[in-house]
């Protein structure tokens, strides 16, 4: 079964229930991994909001995203990642999660993305307001912008109980060495980095270093903005994918990432419940072993 066929099956099943559910496809509970600094368990598949949640106020734009949030929470997931850089995304997450009564069930991560202490404080205060939160679960320094300045503020806010975890992010492999140097010498709870089947630089030393320093790892760009799907366009899902419980190429790509034990959670973005269900399915069942990981790599060559 390829991604399109599996999603068609999910759509048909979804017609019979108000919110798409993984149980309709023989899946039970999404796996969790601990946040090393606290041992808190976190679902291993979450939701990114870059582009997908940057919409206006009309029902036409927002209703599909409301269904996405319903689907996320009703299937045992909770991690949602945003940023002031993502346009209206923070406001949409805040508004819709409050309307649905699920705001407090979410593990909300956002970022500070500006220079200067006071600018950073103003931006973070605005994020709290938009997200409808007095406390944010994870506040990250976006793409390391003025990280030395903001790190001091984040530590102060964490001590005051305004945030639970501190993080650093980047989306390119060229920043991995810098990230590794920073986490080697600073107390951080999370990093968020790019990592995928075709972009594996993070597994060389950054992810092992994060594990050594008891730092959780979120993974962005798991599909490389759709480039991975283009590589397998027209290719049937290999029979060996069923050996680690995959029903689509999307799940193959996500399970490759999750088979690295140093990854805590992967956060693919989507604006469609049917895609979210498919993504969440990667958080269940078996994960590929080293031999199967190599099969995945070879399939994209």
Architecture overview:
Helix 1 (3-14) packs across helix 10 (273-281) and helix 3 (89-100) runs parallel beside helix 4. The chain has an eight-stranded parallel β-sheet. Strands 1-2 form a two-stranded antiparallel sheet. The protein has helices at 3-14, 59-74, 89-100, 117-131, 147-160, 176-185, 206-212, 227-231, 249-258, 273-281, 290-299; strands spanning 32-35, 40-43, 47-48, 79-81, 107-112, 136-141, 163-169, 190-194, 216-220, 265-266. The chain is α/β, with parallel strands linked by helices. Strand 4, helix 3 and strand 5 form a beta-alpha-beta unit. Helices cover 40% and strands 15% of the residues. The protein has a domain at 41-223 and 261-277: TIM Barrel.
Distinctive features:
single chain, 301 residues, alpha/beta, TIM Barrel, eight-stranded parallel β-sheet, 11 helices, NADP_OxRdtase_dom, NAD(P)_OxRdtase_dom_sf, Aldo/keto reductase, AKR2_Oxidoreductase
Q: What's the short story on this structure?
A:
The protein has 301 residues and is an alpha/beta fold. The chain has a domain at 41-223 and 261-277: NADP-dependent oxidoreductase domain (TIM Barrel, Alpha-Beta Barrel), CATH 3.20.20.100. It has helices spanning 3-14, 59-74, 89-100, 117-131, 147-160, 176-185, 206-212, 227-231, 249-258, 273-281, 290-299; strands at residues 32-35, 40-43, 47-48, 79-81, 107-112, 136-141, 163-169, 190-194, 216-220, 265-266.
């Amino acid at each position: 079964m390829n991604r399109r066929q599996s999603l068609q099956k999910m759509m048909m099943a979804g017609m019979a229930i108000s919110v798409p559910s993984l149980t309709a496809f023989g899946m039970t509970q999404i796996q969790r991994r601990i946040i090393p600094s606290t041992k808190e368990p976190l679902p291993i598949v979450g939701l990114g909001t870059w582009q997908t949640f940057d919409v206006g106020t009309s029902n036409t734009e927002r209703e599909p995203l409301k269904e996405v949030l319903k689907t996320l929470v009703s299937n045992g997931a909770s991690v949602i990642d945003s940023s002031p850089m993502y346009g209206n995304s923070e406001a949409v997450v805040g508004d819709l999660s409050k309307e649905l009564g699920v705001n407090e069930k979410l593990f909300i991560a956002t970022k500070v993305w500006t220079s200067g202490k006071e600018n950073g404080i103003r931006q973070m205060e605005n994020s709290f307001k938009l997200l409808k939160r007095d406390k944010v679960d994870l506040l990250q320094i976006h793409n390391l912008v003025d990280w030395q300045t903001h790190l001091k503020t984040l530590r102060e806010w964490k001590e005051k109980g305004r945030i639970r975890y501190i993080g650093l992010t980047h989306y390119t492999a060229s920043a991995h060495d810098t990230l590794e140097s920073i986490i080697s010498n600073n107390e951080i709870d999370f990093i968020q980095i790019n990592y995928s089947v075709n972009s594996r630089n993070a597994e060389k030393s950054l992810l092992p270093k994060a594990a050594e320093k008891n730092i959780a790892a979120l993974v962005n760009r798991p599909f490389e903005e759709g480039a991975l799907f283009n590589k397998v366009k027209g290719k049937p899902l290999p029979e060996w994918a069923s050996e680690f419980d995959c029903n689509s190429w999307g799940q193959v790509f996500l399970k490759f990432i999750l088979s690295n034990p140093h990854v805590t959670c992967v956060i693919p973005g989507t604006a469609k419940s049917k895609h979210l269900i498919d993504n969440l399915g990667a958080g269940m069942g078996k994960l590929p072993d080293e031999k199967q990981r190599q099969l995945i790599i070879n399939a994209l060559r």
